[in-house]
Design a protein that fits this description.
This protein is mainly beta. The protein has one domain: Immunoglobulin-like, CATH 2.60.40.180. 6% of the residues lie in helices and 47% in strands. Strands 1, 2, 5, 8, 9 and 10 form a six-stranded mixed β-sheet that branches. Strands 4-3-6-7 form a four-stranded antiparallel β-sheet. The protein is globular.
Length: 112
């Protein structure tokens, strides 16, 4: 398992959100550099966004969830075409950043 994992739960239907594109960026000054990308699996998770032996440098990171295509597949209009979650890596421990999503709202928390 990689140091950083994520999952998406569609709270409208109470099920995972599969096949959502997710991009990880690292902040360098005022720039954001893409360092990894993937898609959620059938369980709405990305367990291997990074190689298991890679540890992220301390600093600010951003996960970009491309949610518009997911809702379009279901024929649902969404207010949020994408969701960005910015967070701070402060140690070499595991970080889990979940997204609770619906067409008109979202929330997140530091998971385990």
């Amino acid at each position: 398992m990689s140091q950083l994992t994520t999952h998406i739960l569609d709270t409208t239907i109470g099920k995972p959100a599969p096949n959502v594109a997710v991009v990880l960026y690292q902040q360098h000054g005022s720039d954001w550099n893409e360092i990894a990308a993937g898609h959620t699996n059938a369980d709405g998770r990305i367990p291997n966004l990074l190689p298991s032996n890679l540890l992220l440098a301390l600093g600010h990171y951003k996960l970009l969830f491309k949610t518009e295509a997911y809702f379009q597949q279901m024929g649902i209009a969404t207010f949020y075409p994408y969701v960005e979650i910015v967070f701070n890596i402060q140690s070499n421990s595991h970080y889990h950043v979940p997204l609770l999503l619906n067409p008109f709202g979202y929330s997140t928390y530091r998971g385990s």
